[in-house]
């Protein structure tokens, strides 16, 4: 684990909560020099902590109202070529190798249940896919988040449980 101090964590929290505020505003809120804020941001980026400045998009208003998680079982030693083929399916929005049931846990979106059936047929017809098991999301309760972990790290530093 790289060494991040309280200032790094406070800056990271600001970036996640208000990504459009800009370096000048971050430095003003944290009462630090603009160059300090920029160098800390560069450190967060180069260390791989801050991986994107992309906005989070809800695809439902764009007509993709169905979301599903699909466990994909892949023929032995065919993971990479099969994953490459699966990424050609535009409705695939996330894929992770996992332990447990299946080799990949993928997140797909679709316009409706009928469209999801078509997407699932395409997945099952992909060379290297042995079988799938899907679960349709009824409602999203918690969006992907990182702030609770950043806050926990900050609290742990204040209590002396980690160095920083």
From TrEMBL:
<dbReference type="InterPro" id="IPR000485">
    <property type="entry name" value="AsnC-type_HTH_dom"/>
</dbReference>
<dbReference type="InterPro" id="IPR011008">
    <property type="entry name" value="Dimeric_a/b-barrel"/>
</dbReference>
<dbReference type="Pfam" id="PF13412">
    <property type="entry name" value="HTH_24"/>
</dbReference>
<dbReference type="GO" id="GO:0005829">
    <property type="term" value="C:cytosol"/>
</dbReference>
<protein>
    <submittedName>
        <fullName>Transcriptional regulator, AsnC family protein</fullName>
    </submittedName>
</protein>
<dbReference type="InterPro" id="IPR036388">
    <property type="entry name" value="WH-like_DNA-bd_sf"/>
</dbReference>
<feature type="domain" description="HTH asnC-type">
    <location>
        <begin position="4"/>
        <end position="65"/>
    </location>
</feature>
<dbReference type="GO" id="GO:0043565">
    <property type="term" value="F:sequence-specific DNA binding"/>
</dbReference>
<keyword id="KW-0805">Transcription regulation</keyword>
<keyword id="KW-0804">Transcription</keyword>
<dbReference type="InterPro" id="IPR019888">
    <property type="entry name" value="Tscrpt_reg_AsnC-like"/>
</dbReference>
<dbReference type="GO" id="GO:0043200">
    <property type="term" value="P:response to amino acid"/>
</dbReference>
<dbReference type="InterPro" id="IPR036390">
    <property type="entry name" value="WH_DNA-bd_sf"/>
</dbReference>
<keyword id="KW-0238">DNA-binding</keyword>
<dbReference type="Pfam" id="PF01037">
    <property type="entry name" value="AsnC_trans_reg"/>
</dbReference>
<dbReference type="InterPro" id="IPR019887">
    <property type="entry name" value="Tscrpt_reg_AsnC/Lrp_C"/>
</dbReference>
């Amino acid at each position: 684990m790289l060494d991040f101090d309280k200032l790094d964590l406070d800056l990271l929290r600001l970036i996640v909560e208000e990504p459009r505020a800009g370096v000048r505003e971050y430095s003003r809120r944290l009462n630090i020099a603009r160059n300090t804020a920029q160098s800390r941001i560069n450190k967060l980026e180069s260390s791989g902590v801050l991986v994107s400045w992309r906005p989070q998009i809800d695809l439902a208003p764009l007509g993709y109202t169905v979301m599903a998680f699909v466990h994909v079982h892949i023929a032995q030693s065919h993971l990479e070529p099969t994953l490459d083929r699966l990424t050609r399916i535009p409705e695939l929005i996330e894929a992770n190798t996992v332990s447990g049931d299946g080799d990949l846990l993928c997140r797909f979106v679709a316009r409706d249940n009928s469209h999801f059936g078509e997407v699932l047929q395409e997945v099952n017809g992909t060379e290297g896919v042995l079988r799938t098991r899907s679960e349709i999301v009824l409602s999203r309760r918690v969006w992907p988040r990182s702030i609770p972990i950043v806050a926990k790290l900050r609290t742990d530093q204040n209590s002396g449980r980690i160095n920083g």
